[in-house]
Amino acid sequence: MVSSDQRRRQLAREKFERQQQRRAERRRRARRRTAVVAAAVAVVVAAGATAFATGLFDGEDKGGADVADAPAPGKKPDPCAKPAPGEPAKLSFPKEPELDVDTSAAYRMKLTTTCGDIELDLDAKNAPRTVNSFKFLADKGYFDHTRCHRLTTRGVYVLQCGDPTAAGTGTPGYKLPDENLKDPRIKGGTYPAGTVAMANKGPGTGGSQFFLVYKDSELAPNYTPFGTVRAGRDVLEKIAGAGESAGTGDGAPNATVVVDRATVTK
Known about the structure:
Keywords: Isomerase, Rotamase. InterPro entries: Cyclophilin-like_dom_sf (IPR029000), Cyclophilin-type_PPIase_dom (IPR002130), Cyclophilin_A-like (IPR044666). The protein is an alpha+beta fold. The protein has 2 domains: 1-53; 57-265, Cyclophilin-like (Cyclophilin, Beta Barrel). The protein is 29% helix and 21% strand. The chain contains 4 helices and 12 strands, in the order ααββαββββββββαββ. β4 and β5 form a beta hairpin.
């Protein structure tokens, strides 16, 4: 016959075992949730890098006016000033300009933007046709009043500019060949912070769109590196800190980034 004291101990033991089973089940569910979330994040990050590497970070609309106009939950304040009066010229040219840059000279591009000045050192020696094109377009006022239409914040960290349509589809009317893809800085599949490179739709399809790398980004060496950010890294960080409007890590910047004026000087 079981005593009352033994019975109490048995019931206590059974209660303890049930509690342990419930705790173990909660831990299993928590591990499953963590694994699912981690897998989802990995897919998003990998997709961003893959989009760049396969040529999707190009002239297609990834963050144009429609995305910018859509409200985003928790959208951060705009840290930039209002654009100067004026509209993009939206010029088009039948062919690439004749090469007349001095490949032994130092060229500098200044982007006077609503968020602050960004100065770029251009590599005419290793990317002469690209630098020649940028000087030609800047001299024509092609970049003036244009909006930097795309910001990526996961896996690949760049601000994309140079499109008068602000929709990711603008071109100057001609295509540029790839240059400087053997640059040792990008040999390992990383575009270091401060790199200035061309966006494209594939080999030999460069136009006017370019991107500024504000944080080391893993990318296949398929995008012409033609310069470095000399000054204004703090401006890029301010823009990146405001986030992008799509909430996916790839969309129009929350900051109103407009190039009021672009100049290239020797």
